[in-house]
Amino acid sequence: MKRPCALLRFLYQFVLRLATPIGLLLLRVRFRGLANVPKKGPYILCSNHRCVLDPFTIAMGIPQHLYYMAKSELFTNHGSVAAALLRAVGAFPVHRDSADLQSLHTAEAILKRGDSLGIFPQGRVVFDNTPFRPKSGAVLLAARTGMPILPVSIWCEGPWKFGKRVTVRIGSLLPAKTFSGADKDRRLLRRCAALLADQINHQLEKGHAS
Predict the structure, then answer these.
(1) Do 138 and 44 form a contact (C-beta atoms < 8 A)?
(2) HSE of 45 in the Cβ direction (CA atoms, 13 Å)?
(3) 132 burial via Cβ count (<10 Å: 0-12, 13-18, 19+)
(4) Which of the 8 DSSP states describes residue 98?
(5) Chain CA centroid to CA 90, Å
(6) How many CB atoms lie within 10 A of CB 206?
(7) Which residues lie in coiled coils (predicted)?
(8) pLDDT tens, residue by residue, 158-204
(9) Which domains are seen in the chain, by residue range?
(10) What 3-state class would DSSP assign to 2?
């Protein structure tokens, strides 16, 4: 997919930065590990998924314009205007629970042109603190493109709701060599996905700690 035009990217970032102080106040979001965010991309940001506002929550602390894989239902079930807005800010559809080669190729193209990608590899919102168990798509993409993964965790006590404290913790960048060869070896792919799960679960275990 093409980048949104420069005007749309500017408007998106302008509105986002204006809304960030309000969002931080209303959502009670605190960031940990912002120094781990690369100064520039490309990289793959992987996070657990606690609520539908997670892309906005993460974007409040990440300076780069992230392009997100989003479930295809968001593009088909909410009207053409919603679909157009999603595409305008760089989101693109992925068909869950299937081998969606088109979305994989779109993600590869985004990374190869130098942009960063956001993925929630659980494939759905998980409303409680169930341990993070990612599908292997993000690791497969990292192996195919030679890109590093930035592990992010979103923690709140119990089910998320407005006014509840939220901690977004950004871990150390996992270098591309960590995932080398995983696209050609299924067992290695599973081990790399388990490594990513361990990293994000370790971050979640810290809760709201500084």
Answers:
(1) yes
(2) 29
(3) buried
(4) S
(5) 13
(6) 14
(7) none
(8) 888 887 899 999 999 999 999 999 999 999 999 999 999 999 999 99
(9) 6-205 (3.40.1130.10)
(10) coil
